[in-house]
Amino acid sequence: MTPQHLSMPLSIFSVAVAAFQIWLLVDAIRRRVPFYWYLLLLMPIGAILYFVLVKLPELNGKRPAAPAAFAVQGRTLEELNELARQTPSELNKLAYADALLAAQRYAEAVGRYRDVLRQSGDSREALHGVSRALLSMGRPLEAVEELAKLMELDPAYRDYSAALDYAEALWQAGQHQDAIGLLTGLVSVSKRINHRMALAHYLKEQGDEATARSELDQALAEFASSPDFVKRRDQRWADRARKLLAELN
Length: 249
Description:
Elements lengths: L2 H29 L3 H6 L3 H16 L9 H4 L4 H10 L3 H13 L3 H14 L4 H13 L3 H14 L7 H12 L3 H14 L3 H14 L2 H16 L3 H21 L1
């Protein structure tokens, strides 16, 4: 075997690693992650860490983690509060606000997210966080205002999970047609079964069961022709879609 033959697999491997890093770098830019992630992504081990902590949960059908979530792990609310007080960076403030939201201390979370927004008015993490807290407090009109700003900045934020929250806020605010219009636009650009299922759910709530059935049929047909990794990721949504379709039938 010649040196040329030995170097060929190595070259293919190097290209694959570079492509993997570029793929994750694009994802990181879309999420607007903290600056240190961009440095880590320059190293293969950093790319693997990002994939495991950020990208893999999304591929498994879970809500992608907020960049601040990594600072929350292993810390108490009191520790996060003290960290945000001593070093009032946007990351530390978001970590504490996210922890308050997770603890269902919604009013306090709103105040902390507002503080971040005074410092950085276009913080996607803060806009999403404050809107989720407001929704949980039964204040959908205010959540609609915050989510509208977020949609202007990044309509695909967190793999469109913010768009789903926007639809829910619109629905709770009584703007039913706007919610359905938003989701109709979403399913035209996204093939995720849970997005089309959300549309079917609101159509059912509106009384349009025929269109809801049509959306579920299309969602399940697209799911059946999806790659295996998509089927593994979205199996639970397919099960729910079949259950909802059975109810409608």
